[in-house]
Amino acid sequence: MIDFRSDTVTRPTRAMREAMANAEVGDDVYGDDPTVNRLQSYAAERLGFEAALFTASGTQANLLAIMAHCGRGDEYLCGQNAHNYRYEGGGAAVLGSVQPQPIENEPDGSISLDKARAAIKPADAHFAITRLLSLENTIGGRVLSLDYQQQARQFCDNHGLLLHLDGARVFNAAVETGCDITDITRYYDSVSVCLSKGLGAPVGSLLLGSGAFIERARRLRKMVGGGMRQAGVLAAAGQIALEQGPLRLQDDHANAQYLARGLASIPELEVDPDSPQTNMVHARCRRDKTGELSDYLAREGILIKAANPIRFVTHLDINQRDIDTLLKAIKTFYQHR
Ligand SMILES: *Cc1c(COP(=O)(O)O)cnc(C)c1O
């Protein structure tokens, strides 16, 4: 199967499977797993933080971040399209008693700092206490500029807010921006990173922040059932993902460009003029046949999500030949209709 649905679908490489098989492990709830400890200290150093925590998922890392920054009855500002508002089951509210205050995202994925300022609650018994601003980079594949992120840091300092980054794909952002990862992460009090997307690990994310913040997050992780014992088996793959994954994201972005050009040559499709964004291409079917198209492609061994516009995602397991196969299959589909 050639799978364009997401960059979460990558399978562990041979090197990862070998590292997993040979991983030295211990009980991570006791802090005894050397492979987890090595990944956490490597990640902290690499992303420029005091400490890091290996988590089951990006959703868990974001939840722990919000709960470690905010108390019961506090609130966090986030984008209306933010993953940690829309796609995480309302976890911060359900499990943390932390209220989200969503703000319409600007077309470039940022949050207007004027709108954020207007959303900060006054010190008054009627209101939740606004504690945190949460940004996302990349968001829908879009990269936030360094300038904007610096302004967001200044904004938070001026208003006594903490600043979290949902950096599930922050390495894609660094590659696209052409900067070191720490040129982005330096603006934030905490960052979550997915190892299991473009970086290619089978499972796992990281949360980064100060030592005291990560200690709070570690307690919360245990509470939500995320203490994973001999997790070194997973961290071993995560270590390879973090060391080597970023080096090949440029290929995913180049493949997305190649795919966008190919899709643009199909008259029945309308590629989003802003596409591609990092490793994502959005294309609308002019006469909505996405259901039929995705069924047809599935029979040809190609998976897409049946939504309009369609989001195509490039990753470790997609090469140019796979893209040619997709383009040919889409053209054949439309010939018969
Ligand atoms: C995928 C994703 C997450 C959550 O990661 P999971 O590991 O799937 O829980 C969080 N934020 C963003 C922006 C994501 O794309």
Automatic annotation (TrEMBL):
Residues 3-284 form the Aromatic amino acid beta-eliminating lyase/threonine aldolase domain. InterPro entries: ArAA_b-elim_lyase/Thr_aldolase, Low_specificity_L-TA-like, PyrdxlP-dep_Trfase, PyrdxlP-dep_Trfase_major, PyrdxlP-dep_Trfase_small. Transmembrane segments: none annotated. The keyword Lyase applies. GO terms for biological process: glycine biosynthetic process; L-threonine catabolic process. One of its GO terms (molecular function) is L-allo-threonine aldolase activity. It holds the Pfam family Beta_elim_lyase. Belongs to the threonine aldolase family. This is L-threonine aldolase.
